Amino acid sequence: MEELSIRILREGFCRGGLAGVDEAGRGSLIGSMYMALVAVTRSQAEILEELGVTDSKKLSPATREKLYGGILENSCLAIALRVPPSLIDRRNLNMLEVKGIKKLVRVMLTYIVPKRITVDLVGSEARIKEAVRRTGYRGEIIVEARADARYLEVGAASIIAKVLRDREIRRLASIHGDLGSGYPSDPKTRRWIAEYYETHGTLIPEVRHSWKTLLKLAPGEYRSKAQLRSLLDYITQQNP
Question: What sign has the CA pseudo-torsion 24, 145, 80, 94?
Answer without folding.
Answer: negative
